[in-house]
Amino acid sequence: MRTFARFWSREGQGGQAIVMVALSSMTMLFAVGLAIDAGQLFSARRTMQEAADAGAYAAAVVLYQGGTVAQARAAAIGDIQRNAYVHGGDGGLTNVIVNTPPASGPYTGYATYAEVIINTYVRTALVPGQSTLNFVQVRAVAGAEPLNNGYAIMSLERGNVQNAFRVRNNGSIDLTGGGILVNSTHSQAIYSQQCPPNAFNIEEPHGIDVAGGASGCFPASTTPNTSQPQQADPFAGFPTPSTSGMTVYNSLPGGNPMIVSPGIYTVKLQGSGNTQIHMQSGIYILKAGMDGAGNSGFTSLPGGVFIFNTTMNYPNPGGTCGSINVVGNATSDLKAMTTGTYANFLMYQDPACTATMSASGNGTFAGTGTIYVPNAAFVFDGNNATLTGSQLVAKTVDIQNGNVTIDFNAGTTAQPILPRLAE
Q1: Domain residues for 278?
Q2: Distance (Å, whole) CA 238 – CA 342
Q3: Contacts of 13 (CB under 8 A, 6+ apart)
Q4: I need a labelling partner for 372 at 20 to 30 A (CA). Which of 11, 327, 329, 387 fits?
Q5: Measured between alpha carbons, how far is 251 from 253 in angstroms, rounded to an integer?
Q6: Are residues 206 and 353 in the same domain?
Q7: pLDDT digits over 57-71, tens only?
Q8: Omega of the bond prior to 257 within 30 degrees of 0, cis?
Q9: Predicted confidence band at 240 (pLDDT cuts at 50, 70, 90)?
Q10: Based on the domain organization, do 285 and 400 belong to the same domain?
Q11: 393 occurs within a structural domain
């Protein structure tokens, strides 16, 4: 009898152990399943977010470049599909929504922004069907907005180039509202021969940022900050003007003043003798350059102008490029337009042009707006050159005999409008 009891007790304990092992195994399997599901959901969310970000950014770039809402939506959907998310895909479980402008959030109604929403049910080990437990939704918003870098003068040359920014002993600088950037990495990237530096003035707290080194004389309050990070070209990729519907001029009108109209000019825009050139408001595409030599001067009429200096074959590649000299012996006064794509953008030289842009002569130049010469030098070589409420952005800058006065103001200069992820 005792033997049977001992046998029965051992069997009972064995059965309980089996149950405990089974329960423990199920618990561990459930925990492993949860871990696998969590990993699948995390991975899916991350992949979906990357797809949404790419789609929103693609739409923003199209809008930034002047494309239509339909083109922006197509660009977004195309990028999202390349990331393997298709509206109505996966048996109808996946939804891709592109709103331009966004339908929710702080950018609701902003025409230069796009919103992308992707949602789907992720098949997991524990919840293979449709449930709130495996529903994943992501959202991204991107758009184009102004970026003010605070530099009144920028020398964009990024190589190891000596004297990428130079002020000679007969040149002078007076800057308010902004400082100077020099991207060159040379040990003498900026060189000031203005010694003593009586005519080299930059309003505090603005200063000089140089990727390389500095040499020469500088005021104590504006000692260059050397070995600074290079800055991007603020207008890289900025859209060039369309030639569609524009009038082509192969000759200049007569009269004094000579009144010219917006359009495409295959002849150099210039006067002779004491001719004053009055430019009606609008966009000018110059294929042979512009010259204020002699006693002629340029004046923009109310509404302002945008001047694009380019090659003879534009908009096709190739061809020669004329130069621009904005100062002769007379007074020139050019103001940028204040509305549209080129608001506060006075002059834009095609990156394909390497011809020096200059302000030289015995006259004066007063201009408002940004002057952008991305792949050429800008040279001041005259008795006076005044840029009021303006900005100079060039590959290199050489101030020889010019007196450069710039009152930089972000509200009256072109602000690069760059696409970015906003949400």
Answers
A1: 151-417
A2: 10
A3: none
A4: 329
A5: 7
A6: yes
A7: 888 888 876 788 899
A8: yes
A9: very high
A10: yes
A11: yes
Number of domains forming the structure of the chain: 2
Q: Do 139 and 8 share a structural domain?
A: yes
Residue 90 φ then ψ, to 5°: 55, 45
Q: Which of 146, 168, 189 is the last residue of a domain?
A: 146
Name the more confident of 127 and 278: 278
Query: pTM score, two decimals?
Result: 0.70
- Burial bucket for residue 379 (CB in 10 Å: 0-12, 13-18, 19+): buried
Q: Are strands 305-309 and 282-286 parallel, antiparallel or unpaired?
A: parallel
Three-state SS string over the chain comes to: CHHHHHHHHHHHHHHHHHHHHHHHHHHHHHHHHHHHHHHHHHHHHHHHHHHHHHHHHHHHHHHHCCCCHHHHHHHHHHHHHHCCCCCCHHHHCCEEEEECCCCCCCCCCCCCEEEEEEEEECCCCCCCCCCCCCEEEEEEEEEEEECCCCEEEEECCCCCCCCCEEECCCCEEEEECCEEEECCCCCCCEEECCCCCCCEEECCCCCEEECCCEEECCCHHHCCECCCCCCCCCCCCCCCCCCCCCCEECCCCCCCCEEECCEEECCCEECCCCCEEEECCEEEEECCCEECCCCCEEEECCCCEEEEECECCCCCCCCCECCEECCCCCEEEEEECCCCCCCCEEEEECCCCCCCEEEEECCEEEEEEEEEEEEEEEEEEECCEEEEEEEEEEEEEEECCCEEEEECCCCCCCCCEEEEECC
Residues 345, 306 contacting (CB under 8 angstroms): yes
Gap between the Cα atoms of 121 and 132, Å rounded: 9
Among residues 212, 332, 316, the alpha carbon closest in space to that of 270 is found at: 332
CA distance 222 to 200: 9
User: 422 in a domain, yes or no?
Assistant: no
Distance CA 209, CA 327 (A): 29
Tens digits of residue pLDDT in 4-18: 444 445 555 555 656
117 and 18 fall within a common domain: yes
- Give the β-pairing of 417-421 and 179-182: unpaired
Euclidean distance between the first and the last CA atom of the chain, given in angstroms as a whole number: 79
Backbone dihedral angles phi then psi of residue 319, each to the nearest 5 degrees: 100, 160
Same structural domain for residues 165 and 117? no
